[in-house]
User: What shape does this take?
Amino acid sequence: MNSVEATFTEDLYVFPSLTTVVINTKWKNLGEKEIDLLSKILNSVKLSMAAVRIVEMKSLDLSKWAEKPPRIIGFGIEAPGVTAYEVVTTPETQLVLADNLTTLLGDDQLKKKLWISLKQLFSL
Assistant: This one.
């Protein structure tokens, strides 16, 4: 056995990409109610805060992402050509955009629209 064969003897594993949540504000600027709402939204699709990647950006341009997540849920972000509350499917990912968490807090109709979209996104 040469030295190269002995160097990497463990199995390699491929971990699936995480669902990504995109918010339009810094995490530290979210209030307790917004974080609680996000947690409830994720729980409704059988996810937790620990099971997703959360990133902050104002607009979404997937062409600039090196790694495309399988699903994206965006809150309060802009994406050219994407209509809010409609599931959009690309070859690499599916996404749903919604209003920001603060707006969703006070609007049950928007929450219902989001739930309908999330059921489609997660095949529930």
